[in-house]
Design goal:
Low-confidence stretches: 213-219
Helix content: 25-40%
Oligomer: single chain
CATH superfamily of the largest domain: DHBP synthase
CATH architecture of the largest domain: Alpha-Beta Complex
CATH class of the largest domain: Alpha Beta
Number of domains: 2
Radius of gyration: 19 Å
Number of helices: 8
Shape: globular
Order of helices and strands: EHEEHEHEEHEHEEEHEEEEHEH
Strand order of the largest sheet: 1-8-2-3-7-4-6-5-9-10-11
Largest sheet: 11 strands, mixed
Strand content: 15-25%
Bound molecules: threonylcarbamoyladenylate, magnesium ion
Number of strands: 15
């Protein structure tokens, strides 16, 4: 199994592999990423192939620091402001590609825009610095499946498709970055994630949220409705569970009836804790011994918006 705990030697080896066009999975604070040299068409094509991802769904380019983006995207004032406030961290900005941007057009799925992010995880930071090139990295899972928050999750589905998986502990945020479109006339959240709408609005004022039917397919193809899908059906807003269902709780759950087994996203009803546990617990409950996964209601505020977004997609077939 190609899993290696992070160390300076492993980072150096990973950087060499990436520069040679190979794929390396690495930890970020949101989820683990499946990285490839974003400036290498073949490496980017290999990412799509490894995930079984449609090539109409563009990838995020990751760099270690703000200045590293200058050759790639057209800055604007809003982007500068958000970069200062939220980077490094779980925010992705969609901006116009610069003329002669060296990032593969395939990473942009042929569009004029590029999604960019500066992750805060120390291993991701060290790796990006060592490579010195933008790294295209979708979540390191098969397309449509649950995103990985540990190296083991990555190994379960991609070990024969990557050269190396760098282990760096559990992803602390546990949900993907918020994807914010800064190119369209109105600033719009294409994917709710680790930075909440409330946090963004404090800095830049009102933002829109793309809805499933309103979005234009080429703009936010990652908003394909069914996603994050466990094998079992997912039943939302459960106020009780059947004896053959697995129950995913939120908050004090002593009063709720039923369930063959139960896990609690956060016994004290904390949304940050719930976000960090969500994907790992969905994986744990996704067991053929049960008929379905029933999920207790989760408030729609703050990180709850992103948690509910993932759960809704997990419940679609
Ligand atoms: O937290 C994250 O963002 C993780 C870590 C590894 O950084 N990455 C991640 O990548 O979640 P991925 O590929 O699973 O999701 C990227 C999302 C997709 O919904 C995609 O459609 C959207 O970003 N996206 C990428 N480039 C875009 C662009 N140019 N325009 C609009 N949406 C874009
Ligand atoms: Mg993904």
């Amino acid at each position: 199994m190609p899993v290696a705990p992070s160390s300076p030697e492993v980072i150096a080896r990973a950087a060499d592999l990436l520069r040679a066009g190979k794929l390396v999975a690495f930890p970020t604070e949101t989820v683990y990423g499946l990285g490839g040299d974003a400036t290498n068409d073949l490496a980017v094509a290999a990412i799509y192939a490894a995930k079984g991802r449609p090539q109409i769904n563009p990838l995020i380019a990751h760099v270690a620091e703000v200045a590293a983006l200058d050759p790639h995207i057209e800055w604007n004032d809003t982007a500068r402001l958000l970069a200062t406030q939220f980077w490094p961290g779980p925010l992705t900005l969609v901006l116009s590609r610069k003329k002669n941007c060296p990032v593969s057009l395939l990473a942009s799925a042929g569009m004029e825009t590029l999604a960019v992010r500066i992750p805060s995880h120390p291993v991701a930071q060290a790796l990006l610095k060592a490579v010195g090139r933008p790294i295209a990295a979708p979540s390191a899972n098969l397309s449509g499946k649950i995103s990985p928050t540990t190296a083991l999750h990555v190994a379960e589905s991609l070990s024969d498709k990557v050269e190396l998986i760098i282990a760096g502990g559990k992803s602390t945020v546990g949900l993907e970055s918020t994807v914010l479109d800064l190119v369209s006339p109105r600033i719009c959240i294409l994917r709710p994630g680790g930075i909440t709408r409330e946090q963004l609005e404090k800095v830049i004022g009102p933002v829109e949220t793309a809805t499933h039917n309103a979005h234009e397919a080429p703009l936010a193809p990652g908003m394909l409705p069914s996603h994050y899908a466990p094998e079992l059906p997912v039943r939302l807003n459960a106020n009780s569970a059947a004896d053959n269902e697995a129950l995913l709780c939120f908050g004090p759950a002593a009063f709720i009836k039923g369930g063959a087994t139960r896990l609690n996203l956060s016994g004290r009803g904390d949304l940050e804790e719930a976000a960090a546990h969500l994907f790992a617990m969905l994986r744990q409950l996704d067991d053929k011994r049960y008929r379905a996964i029933a999920v207790m209601p989760i408030p729609e505020t703050g990180l709850g918006a992103a948690i509910n977004d993932r759960l809704r997609r997990a419940s679609l077939r």
